[in-house]
Design brief:
17 helices, alpha/beta, 7-stranded mixed beta sheet, SelA_trans, 5-stranded mixed beta sheet, binds pyridoxal-5'-phosphate
Length: 428
């Protein structure tokens, strides 16, 4: 009679003593490595792997970091994919994150030894990038920027807002609910499709704390419509706040209909809010740009402390603003001919087992709704999408018209070799 193979499953301590796990014990910690060992022992007991293979299995399945989030190749063609962490950071921003991760001079003037202005470098970079803003401030995200503005300017009073701009942005986040949570009341003007300057003028009164203009983000109203630019509401005697959403600091020729901070400020809008991790291509952040006194009032508001960004955000934002073109910008601007050439190289790398296709990418994250960005990629059978996503180097593609499309506009070129390897594994 042969011995039960389960008795040959090595003991935990014996596996942990394997020299190949030394590095992992240092970077992941003993408890995390032990979990992987226990899982491998379980597979051996279940007969899925040989008892002698437990240590090899552990080495093969150790996570790269102690956190569970894994790098994913975004081949959806949606440049700013909320489920994939929106903007991928530039190399410069990643370096800055690493440098700021330890103790750092975020609030200390090293020359004098006195207290320094928190995040002075990031704020100076933002001010330099938006010279039309007399004051700049950074909070945790776009929603926080709106919350701060609404609380400071309109709590206990009214926010005048067009009916067509009372939007839900995604994941059930409804802007009107957020605004009312500050204690402000909403004074809706106009109809779903049309609003005029007179509507705003008639609604403004002693109760009005601010007028809010919102970029409707992920939807468009077409046909019999009219809206009012924020700049033509500035003489109604109350502050006008323009939530441009996407975070374009200046006009972009490829996105002519997308609002930008510089144009709004030049039109006299006193306060603009935007997200840092949309078209700006930086870390999650909320930008407040505008009139110096107004921004100073927001910065001093007690709520500002609760919405404060950490040193990592400040470091990544400054590097995004001062460093080379961030990936999101490069993805937006790369000519389709380059994407086509990369698709052909990719197809050749996997032995021609995929078809090179033309497709349409999009900005995503509520930016440039309805704008199709001409793109190229490769197509596989639809079932490949699940296999790519579940692979060891996960790739998220798009399923359309019964096939799986790997869109290259949202893939940084330096990920092409990894992408080819992932495709080859799935095609095998
Ligand atoms: C995305 C967006 C927000 C919310 O910004 P977050 O950074 O996601 O908090 C608010 N308003 C508009 C118009 C947006 O597009």
């Amino acid at each position: 009679m042969s011995e039960d193979p389960r008795r040959r499953v090595p003991r935990t301590d014996a596996v942990l003593a394997d020299a190949r796990l030394g590095q992992a014990l240092a970077t992941l910690g003993r408890a995390r490595v032990k979990e992987v060992v226990v899982a491998a022992q379980g597979r051996a007991r279940a007969g899925e792997i040989a008892p002698e293979a437990v240590a090899d299995e552990v080495v093969a399945t150790l996570p790269r970091t102690a956190a569970s989030m894994r790098p994913v190749i975004n081949a959806t063609g949606v440049l700013l994919h909320t489920n994939l962490g929106r903007a991928p950071l530039s190399g410069a921003a990643r370096d800055a994150l690493d440098a700021a991760a330890g103790t750092t001079d975020v609030e200390l003037d090293l020359a004098t030894g006195g207290r320094g202005r928190r995040g002075a470098g990031a704020l100076a970079a933002l001010a330099a990038a938006v010279p039309d803003a007399g004051g700049v401030h950074v909070v945790n995200n776009g929603a926080a920027a709106l919350t701060l503005a609404a609380t400071a300017l309109a709590a206990g009073g009214e926010i005048v807002i067009a009916r067509g701009e009372m939007v839900e942005i995604g994941d059930g986040f409804r802007l009107p609910d957020l605004l009312e949570s500050t204690g402000a009341r909403l004074r809706e003007v106009g109809t779903t499709n049309r609003v005029r300057r007179e509507d705003y003028a008639a609604a403004v009164g002693p109760q009005t704390g601010m007028i809010l203009k919102v970029h409707p983000s992920n939807f468009v109203v077409t046909g019999f419509t009219s809206s009012v630019p924020a700049g033509s509401l500035t003489d109604l005697g109350v502050p006008v706040v323009s939530d441009i959403g996407s975070g374009l600091l200046a006009p972009h020729p490829l996105l002519p209909a997308e609002p930008d901070a510089a144009s709004e400020l030049r039109d006299g809008v006193p306060l603009v809010t935007a997200s840092g991790d949309k078209l700006l291509g930086g870390p999650q952040a909320g930008l407040l740009l505008g009139d110096a006194d107004l921004v100073q009032g927001l910065r001093r508001h007690p709520l500002a402390r609760a919405l404060r960004v950490d040193k990592l955000t400040l470091a990544a934002l400054e590097a995004t603003l001062r460093g080379p073109t961030p990936p999101v910008r490069a993805m937006l601007e790369v000519p389709v001919s380059e994407l086509r050439a990369r698709a052909e190289t990719l197809a050749a790398r996997v032995g021609g087992a995929v078809e090179v296709v033309a497709c349409d990418a999009e900005v995503g994250g509520g930016g440039a709704p309805g704008v199709a960005l001409p793109s190229a990629g490769v197509a596989l059978p639809a079932a490949a999408a699940d296999a790519l996503r579940a692979g060891e180097d996960p790739v998220v593609a798009r399923v359309e018209q019964g096939r799986c499309v790997v869109d290259l506009r949202s893939v940084p070129p330096e990920a092409d070799a990894r992408l080819a390897a992932a495709l080859a594994r799935v095609l095998r």
